[in-house]
Amino acid sequence: MEQKNLKDLLMEVAAGRADVTDAMDKINNSGFAELDFAKVDLAREKRNGYPEVIYGEGKTAEQIVGIMQVMTQNKLNILGTRISKEKFEIIKESNKNAIYFEKARCVTVTNHEIPTTESYVAIVTAGTSDMDVAEEAAITAETYGNKVERVYDVGVAGISRLFNRLDVIQGAKVVIVIAGMEGALASVVGGLIDSPLIAVPTSVGYGTSFGGVTPLLTMLNSCASGITVVNIDNGFGAGYSASMMNHL
Amino acid sequence: MEQKNLKDLLMEVAAGRADVTDAMDKINNSGFAELDFAKVDLAREKRNGYPEVIYGEGKTAEQIVGIMQVMTQNKLNILGTRISKEKFEIIKESNKNAIYFEKARCVTVTNHEIPTTESYVAIVTAGTSDMDVAEEAAITAETYGNKVERVYDVGVAGISRLFNRLDVIQGAKVVIVIAGMEGALASVVGGLIDSPLIAVPTSVGYGTSFGGVTPLLTMLNSCASGITVVNIDNGFGAGYSASMMNHL
Amino acid sequence: MEQKNLKDLLMEVAAGRADVTDAMDKINNSGFAELDFAKVDLAREKRNGYPEVIYGEGKTAEQIVGIMQVMTQNKLNILGTRISKEKFEIIKESNKNAIYFEKARCVTVTNHEIPTTESYVAIVTAGTSDMDVAEEAAITAETYGNKVERVYDVGVAGISRLFNRLDVIQGAKVVIVIAGMEGALASVVGGLIDSPLIAVPTSVGYGTSFGGVTPLLTMLNSCASGITVVNIDNGFGAGYSASMMNHL
Amino acid sequence: MEQKNLKDLLMEVAAGRADVTDAMDKINNSGFAELDFAKVDLAREKRNGYPEVIYGEGKTAEQIVGIMQVMTQNKLNILGTRISKEKFEIIKESNKNAIYFEKARCVTVTNHEIPTTESYVAIVTAGTSDMDVAEEAAITAETYGNKVERVYDVGVAGISRLFNRLDVIQGAKVVIVIAGMEGALASVVGGLIDSPLIAVPTSVGYGTSFGGVTPLLTMLNSCASGITVVNIDNGFGAGYSASMMNHL
Amino acid sequence: MEQKNLKDLLMEVAAGRADVTDAMDKINNSGFAELDFAKVDLAREKRNGYPEVIYGEGKTAEQIVGIMQVMTQNKLNILGTRISKEKFEIIKESNKNAIYFEKARCVTVTNHEIPTTESYVAIVTAGTSDMDVAEEAAITAETYGNKVERVYDVGVAGISRLFNRLDVIQGAKVVIVIAGMEGALASVVGGLIDSPLIAVPTSVGYGTSFGGVTPLLTMLNSCASGITVVNIDNGFGAGYSASMMNHL
Amino acid sequence: MEQKNLKDLLMEVAAGRADVTDAMDKINNSGFAELDFAKVDLAREKRNGYPEVIYGEGKTAEQIVGIMQVMTQNKLNILGTRISKEKFEIIKESNKNAIYFEKARCVTVTNHEIPTTESYVAIVTAGTSDMDVAEEAAITAETYGNKVERVYDVGVAGISRLFNRLDVIQGAKVVIVIAGMEGALASVVGGLIDSPLIAVPTSVGYGTSFGGVTPLLTMLNSCASGITVVNIDNGFGAGYSASMMNHL
Amino acid sequence: MEQKNLKDLLMEVAAGRADVTDAMDKINNSGFAELDFAKVDLAREKRNGYPEVIYGEGKTAEQIVGIMQVMTQNKLNILGTRISKEKFEIIKESNKNAIYFEKARCVTVTNHEIPTTESYVAIVTAGTSDMDVAEEAAITAETYGNKVERVYDVGVAGISRLFNRLDVIQGAKVVIVIAGMEGALASVVGGLIDSPLIAVPTSVGYGTSFGGVTPLLTMLNSCASGITVVNIDNGFGAGYSASMMNHL
Amino acid sequence: MEQKNLKDLLMEVAAGRADVTDAMDKINNSGFAELDFAKVDLAREKRNGYPEVIYGEGKTAEQIVGIMQVMTQNKLNILGTRISKEKFEIIKESNKNAIYFEKARCVTVTNHEIPTTESYVAIVTAGTSDMDVAEEAAITAETYGNKVERVYDVGVAGISRLFNRLDVIQGAKVVIVIAGMEGALASVVGGLIDSPLIAVPTSVGYGTSFGGVTPLLTMLNSCASGITVVNIDNGFGAGYSASMMNHL
């Protein structure tokens, strides 16, 4: 609880204007809905700026539907990630407004409109195979009201493709670079821009790419400054952080 | 080279106002100074917003002095990291304005003043032993004109210490969380704020902390959103990225 | 063999009251039943306080049925873990009293009643996906006569959910914390209680969670004291150890 | 804050018997002392049953002295771990009552007497070289009021040594097993007792013992039940958890 | 852009013989074709000596067809790797000239003839199971105009098989050695020849071969000189580099 | 070629009794049969004491049949390992004398009888799930003429089962110990016998057993002497080495 | 205790010829001497064929002296490994008969003569730097009465050196191969002999040799049969096992 | 032995022109000199094109001197690597012609002149700290008669430095790229050239660079083709292979 609010609340209690039980609830900050299988965090938008996101992996379609109902009742916008097409078929029956983004494997429901930013997030990929992760990042950022520019398949093996699109990248407020294999693109882009760069390693590759560990290490050790990194294939995390930065 | 500048330059050439050799140099963008042992990147401030930083590890004091001379001649502000006290003793002889920050192991020279931000970066550590990395981050951010608030030793073993300082953390435009051992602090702080969080794992710990790998993994897998991560003990990187974000 | 018993036995032999062959058997302590494919350890309850547990992975339904017959003949209570629904269909044909717990993937047969403790074990999970491992722990503890309180989905991303249930957790004699991803919940709970905490990492997560290695490392390096750790996804082991502690 | 206390406090505020500022402090639970370099957690004994422990690694003797002063002023018993003899020489000048345990590298100050348990903790080691870790566990347990029995150098290469001391081990309320190299002793002891076993891997060994990773893995995968594990060389953690269990 | 060409171009501009927009395009070096899902690098043959290769993994048959069309239009020879038989069935419908190599999982289209070298590349394998990787290397090298000699199944367990074929190996201009399991063959061959050796570890093996990591490490640490290494199972890379060397 | 034979051969040549081409062949020692897909090492029995073994993984049934034909023509006894039941169905059509061992996944053909040893190899397993690997070892040893004693399911969790069979183990000329999970059985047996012990880690286990890496490390670091180790699940290798030792 | 002895003992007790207390001692098999810091296993020679070995690492010279006194009193031959020259200077003052082997870092005391075998152990190394480990193996084997032949510096980079000494290697009853870097020598030798081969990886190498992990993996995955492996740099273990085999 | 020479030799024997003992020696190919501590491989220049190289690590100055004497007697050129300045002080006393290269830590003795190539090897480094490894590569290549061009400190953080020197790199017959940290430079250069590229990872970096493992993985997974890789810090290996290729 924020200190100012706490003080106000206690003064209300002291003045007899607030009930002790209500005050306890508020201090306990129990802003969540209790389902059989989950405690939906309704206060997250207030606390973090964004409502709770539904991570679909390991949840049944029914569980997802249940959480979506609670969120819709609370007029929260919904973003569900890592949701298969099969699950979405079940979900959309009870959520007519739900939209599915197949490449991104995301579901969204707009329960209230939010404005779009003037500034944009550039999402840059090394290869065609990184596109799914890139779309997860793009849909996340767009859902949170960000303008997005996609610059795909500009890996360093043919670096002129990158230079050709450099203006778009340099014009962004935040840049996301997504790459598998050796992940060198992050360093090269990082050396050419003056805005924050979020690097996303992908599990694209074979042998010693070790399911994305190699580009992760590459990105953590970049000789270029201004690069921060998220988990392997974590397009959502990159889009989320980019949105935070783009709204600063 | 930016597309607009390239166009202008070519039109100058076409108009006979620019010399072909000069144009070649500009297109080659040779904005660096060649020393025996290094090519100092003088164009970096223009390109990245910040001048080249001198990474002191693996360089002799003499090499550092040489690079500092070139930068001073070009009126660039200087930040040197990972510089031991012994090296600084030699450096300061030829750089009277150089200042040494012992805990941070940083050297700075102010060759032109830069303004300080209104908004601030909060730097939060789990324990006393994380302080050196925190100071590297703090000095970096301050050198680049950021106001910094330090919130040290608020690890989750005594979580009330953290809640007591939560207002300062929640008021920041950007938050850096620095922790060794299991690094859980990043997730807890990440769940309580609505601004970007840069997590820095440190090599503090023993046994299975594996020199910082454990908190790194913790931070990459955080259940809280909005967290991006830098290399182990990379206080500089965190301060640099935080500065980029704080200036957005 | 305990020293006192050995002395008594030898004095019986010396006094001619005990037969040499019988004495050999007792000293060899051959308290097991020999099947074609297994040696069932019938003395384990006496030695360890609990009868042998049937680990179902890598055993056929027929082998499990065989072991259960021997145990039932010896009036031992039965707990089988990691048993699929398919195997249970076969098992229950010859074991009418066998009960199946689907989420926990456990089978139990009560061959003699045991009392339930007054004190309870609290089982705390970070997320919905950790529930299967939690149920394995819960069924194990309940089978061994422990009262269990379940506190599920209280991960640190929405820490108020945890604080809301803190009274239940602080009231337990033993606490089990189960978490995947970064596993930070163990440290946070550990800092808030004065009873032993058994931490169970789960394989929930992706990328650098490395199938549960990341939360395992987190838990081993916790800055909070009083935490001990078991193998990844080892709900049974946690429930077993918790039962031992709850019965102290 | 416990729910009952919170309710009482709010009723005091409502009744006008408590001051708003005081109530804020209590809710914020600011039970710590702020030093330049640390926030000493004075509420930990109340919360966790034991006062904060001073982890000596990475702290200067002066910092340790400072923390000890605050704790002594608050009449808290002191346990410092991983403190070198050199640091102790400085510490004892301002702490005449401080006692140093050289093998355990621990410092203790008794600021109030605590009773010793009837039941005991057995500490069992595989070899002579595991003794330092064992002593850290033993001093920790003794400092917290536990009777301790030491059973050292009974590794499985000469298993008769173990059987010879089995009565002592089986009579303990809690058993700590400490082993390096392959760490097999934990499994063997675990198969012979009916009390909780805390296993501590040590960094004793060479080559593929990987600084204690091998016995750690051995202990996590033990075929015997009832074993929980702590970090490599973490004698303190084992002694602390054993004390918690022995006091149940 | 090459310096000489840049100079010429700028002089054309200065002389008014070249248009500014055209010059911009040339300097930007936009030698690629933009598809929906890919940017095909048409300048690669000029830059690297070989046209872009289509890496089939993670691309749909339709995407591969699209890229092949662009390349055929540009009269580039085509090599596609890691293409399953199923995908080829679709590909060949619109590419009558496409040839499929099943063991190598490669597709080729000859859009212009290239001469074959006099000197040859020897491809040596340790076992029968390494043959698929070997064929990928062989087809790659042959597609690029190299004569290839195959020496298969001559692993060190029966070293006389190797000595029997030594003349063929010693007569090669470049040697590729392909081995899984422990990969010792590379060192043995390396000690017997005076030409460059490219070593390819394969994922053949089990247990601690770790999917090819073991032969990779073996090859990187070879006591014989003149050995360089490529990624696990990277037959293409070995064939490509061998072709470069064979054409020197 | 053995020095004595070389000398003899050269003297034959010098004396004109041997042909130069024949001598070349003999020196080249080309004792192998060349198939399309393999070079069958016919000289191995002479060189190593045992004929070449057919490792079935990664070979088609047809390839196995081809190698078996060559070996039968050369009157060599045949052992094929890692051969699935499906492949055997094809194999037996052209090899009426082939026998299949299902648990061991081995095929044998006896083309000439060999005598059985008086002394025996004891094969000891920790659990029921280690039986497949044990049978691979047993069939290998028996095929090579060794008497084998099986002592299965005597893991250290119920150590009395082991002591009950200790006489059989101590009477063996060579002992093979096979264990997954933590693999402690090897150390315990190693401490109780005076004959060579070959330890085989198995991939039985979950979580941090890492597919057999944990018992492998345990066995390599055993505090008991006289233990040597083979690859994970390598029952064949253990049986082969045990046969070598049993025939000494 | 062996079953036959146990039966005899019990019959003695039953007949009144043996005392109960004596029988207890014998059954407990307390064949060790209790020192302050160690329990010396005096029964090991009887049980394992060799007396306990003193592993010097982590023991003080005084502790080693103490153990040697007990062993000398019991007329046991002494072998101490990993003993520095500094420790030996202290040891020899109270052990006039102690001999030091500097390269091997071993100490021996002959308290009774043992015969030397006719058959020999061949110890083969890849390079000059593997010699220390080789000498540890050689001294161990010689101390236990084995004839040893040293074949040093015959690594596969110059394989003719190996072939030149092949007669000596092929004539051995047991072969030890010691190699660092990539460890390929073990496979090559293994393919050429018909006696058991013990492979010892050494920590010789740099970069990706990872302190001996690379040759260890090489040796575990050898395509040649009949190879078993010991821990990195474990010359003692190889010598010990070789002695066991040479005495079969 | 080459087949042609073998045939000739045997025909000499058959004709009575060659002695049997001499023939044996030649077939055994005993082209090495036996020292106490080493077998110097004198035939290597004939076999591999280059004489044996003295790897200085783990050899005493005296051993190095001994090997140099044998090589000088055989008129072989000498290259010693990883030789400290201290060792060189001793070496030069008995080798007046020995030259020491301090950065490269190499010693050379020219016992016969060799010609220098027209074509050159370009050695490219990312940073100043990679220079020692680069010099080892350069001295190796120069010793073997190659012209070398050094292009140092052109890492991708300031990519214009690289483009500025691109002509030199593109003009080389072979390119060596040396980089630590994330090693991205190899991919960028690889995408811009049409000659073979040898990549050398260095141990420059901290945290997750893991002593060079990160750039090694980067280089093995490069999206650019034509790159082969050597061990971490293996400047010698790169220079050696480059020389082989440059002489093709």
Automatic annotation (TrEMBL), chains A, B, C, D, E, F, G, H:
What SMART domains does the annotation carry? AIRC
Q: Which GO terms describe its molecular function?
A: hydrolase activity
All copies of domain PurE, residue ranges: 119-248
* Classification via SUPFAM superfamilies: N5-CAIR mutase (phosphoribosylaminoimidazole carboxylase, PurE)
- Specify one Pfam family: AIRC
State the Gene Ontology BP annotations: 'de novo' IMP biosynthetic process
**Gene3D superfamilies, per database record:** 3.40.50.1970
Q: InterPro entries given for it?
A: P2CMN_synthase_LarB (IPR039476), PurE_dom (IPR000031)
Entry protein name: Phosphoribosylaminoimidazole carboxylase catalytic subunit
